[in-house]
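This follows on from our talk about sequence and fold. Go ahead and set the record down below:
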Amino acid sequence: MSKSTKMMITVIAILLVIGLAVTVIILTNSKANKSSITINSAEDLENLISKVYEGQEDKIPSSAQTQVIDVKDEVMVKSFTGLDNGDDLQYLVVSEPMISSQAYSFVLATVKEGVDANKIAQTIKDQVDYRKWICVSAEKVYTTSSGNIVCLVMSSEEVAKPIYEKFKTLAGAVGQEYEKTEQIELPPEMYE
């Protein structure tokens, strides 16, 4: 075997190893945020909320109601997610109390094909109004994504964290996780 043939075989072997390594990395990364949940309808999101609530009944306000929101209704989309519109959303389902002295909101949405769910989760964390209730505000805001599902939970730490953790457990894998803690600004006279 000539020296150039050996060199060519070595180069081909190195390229095959590199190609295999790149393929493994791509497959690993594509599965990192692959949800174990399949959502084909708004009803599937409602059912997912029910599954998250199983065993968590003592944390949820008794008047919490789950409802499907029309993603074309910009006012409602803005109210529940902070997004300016629902153009990137396929389905939106919300669980909130109709009347309560407790700040609580659990929102699940699916994004349309080709939309970055992780980016939507970050935008929701940045833009959602955690003071939207008249007399109370949410202490903690948690958002993440799993596949094409976006999750938002906001309430007190004691309520929001278990709901958020249960969603992550059911999802199997999540993308980037975002959280925000409310900073209460008191008038200067309150510090005296």
Observations:
- Confidence is low (pLDDT under 50) at residues 27-32.
- The first strand starts at residue 64 and ends at 69.
- The longest helix spans residues 3-32.
